[in-house]
Write a structure and sequence with these properties.
This protein has a five-stranded parallel β-sheet, with helices on both faces. The chain starts with a strand and ends in a 6-residue tail after the last helix. The chain has one domain: Rossmann fold (3-Layer(aba) Sandwich). It has 201 residues and is an alpha/beta fold. It is globular. It binds thymidine-5'-diphosphate (TYD). Thymidine-5'-diphosphate binds next to helix 4.
Length: 201
């Protein structure tokens, strides 16, 4: 069977990753393509530890970096690899570049974070939803989590843009309305799948 594709949506908090990932899944399924939505941190055993830590004020950021990397290995083993082997298109709401962007800011050692994550297989396409941190934070209605502060998110955004340049992510201006942004997301994915000959018109 033909291997599927791993498409990742990245961006700072409030960029609209979940909305667009879910819209993308619906659009692909309508086209008759086997697609699965997934996300990090996961709801598995390690993801749940991270969830508990998120509400604490004092967290050792190195422990947190290790847990994000461990959760990712779990995600790869339990969800991503098996589905790729079955030919699914996986839309992941965050993946390895979330760690490189956030943890290299919190820990301050990007190379260490990259080393920890070296077992994460490369995604086929990364879409960066780029939003101004003030606009992103303004969209978050629930109680803010630990990273959701403008000073941190400004640095994380810069890191994402730097990674985008280095690794060739597709960057979309996510300061606009949902439909406008989705139009760009959809057309990017359509082009990607056409190139891979995975889309029958
Ligand atoms: P988020 O996608 O915002 O989850 P939720 O839908 O539960 O709000 O992720 C939670 C936070 O975790 C977010 O602020 C970014 C952070 N994060 C990292 O710092 N490193 C990582 O590797 C991942 C996956 C997330």
């Amino acid at each position: 069977m033909k291997r599927g594709f791993l498409i990742v949506i990245e961006g700072i908090d409030g960029a609209g990753k979940t909305t667009h990932a879910r819209k993308l899944v619906r659009w692909l399924r309508k086209k008759g393509i086997q697609t699965r939505y997934t996300f990090e941190p996961t709801r598995g055993a390690i993801g749940r530890i991270l969830e508990k830590m998120a509400s604490k004020r004092k967290v050792d950021v190195r422990v947190e970096a290790l847990l994000f990397a461990a959760d990712r290995i779990d995600h790869l083993n339990k969800i991503i690899r098996p589905l790729l082997e079955k030919g699914f298109i996986i839309i992941s709401d965050r993946y390895v570049h979330s760690s490189i962007a956030y943890q290299s800011i919190t820990v301050g050692d990007q190379r260490w974070v990259e080393e920890l994550n070296k077992f994460a297989e490369k995604p086929d396409l990364v879409i960066l939803l780029d939003v101004d941190p003030e606009i992103g934070l303004g969209r978050i209605k629930r109680k803010r989590a630990r990273f959701e502060r403008v000073e941190i998110l400004k640095k994380v955004r810069e890191k994402y843009l730097e990674l985008a340049e280095r690794e060739g992510f597709k960057v979309i201006d996510a300061n606009r309305g949902v439909e406008e942004v989705f139009e760009d997301v959809r057309s990017l994915v359509e082009k990607f799948l056409e190139e891979k000959k995975a889309l029958q018109q």
